Amino acid sequence: MTDTPPCPQCKSAFAYPTGQSMMCPECGHEWNPDEIDAENAPTVVKDANGNVLHDGDDVVMVKDLAVKGAPKALKAGTKVRNIKLVDGDHNIDCRIEGFGAMALKSEFVKKA
């Protein structure tokens, strides 16, 4: 049994190599498997110190952050428990005790 990846367009299992790329005989799609692997690679989220963050980690705020519509700012040193990593500009979803649900940027926190 061969170890060729299926076609990303039609999911055909009959793809074959053509030098540096792969070709699908069913739909005619040609692709570079290295580019497909790079697109599907998980994103790495790092904190202010360069440590890799994971779902469920606890983090600490490193800077006071003013929040629109809130009467007070989030203070540096505030501990945030059980974060969830998401795609986008604000790549951390969390719940801050006494404040509520919040989306944060990873550059303003450090791993606890």
What is the general shape?
elongated
For the biggest β-sheet, the strand order reads: 1-2-3
- How many whole angstroms does the radius of gyration measure? 21 Å
Give the DSSP E fraction (strand runs of 2 or more residues). 25-35%
Q: Calculate the terminal CA-CA distance, rounded to whole Å.
A: 47 Å
Element string (H = helix, E = strand): EEEHEEEEEE
Reported by name, the CATH topology of the largest domain is SH3 type barrels
- How many helices in DSSP terms? 1
Query: What is the CATH superfamily label of the largest domain?
Result: SH3 Domains
CATH architecture classification of the largest domain: Roll
Count of all domains: 2
- CATH class category label of the largest domain: Mainly Beta
Considering DSSP H and I runs of 4 or more, what fraction of the residues is helical? under 10%
Mean pLDDT: 89
- Segments where pLDDT lies below 50 for 5+ residues? none
List the helices and strands and how they pair.
Elements: E1 16-18, E2 21-23, E3 30-31, H1 33-40, E4 59-61, E5 79-80, E6 84-85, E7 92-96, E8 100-104, E9 109-111
Antiparallel strand pairs: 1-2, 2-3, 4-5, 4-9, 6-7, 7-8
What are its keywords?
112 residues, mainly beta, SH3 type barrels, 2 domains, three-stranded antiparallel sheet, 1 helix, 7% helix, 25% strand
Write a structural description.
The chain is mainly beta and 112 residues long. The chain folds into two domains: 10-41, no CATH class; 59-111, Roll (SH3 type barrels). It is built from one helix and nine strands, in the order E-E-E-H-E-E-E-E-E-E. It has one helix at 33-40, and strands spanning 16-18, 21-23, 30-31, 59-61, 79-80, 84-85, 92-96, 100-104, 109-111. It has a three-stranded antiparallel sheet. The chain has a three-stranded antiparallel sheet with strand order 5-4-9, with no helix packed on it. It has a three-stranded antiparallel sheet with strand order 6-7-8, with no helix packed on it. The N and C termini lie far apart (47 Å).
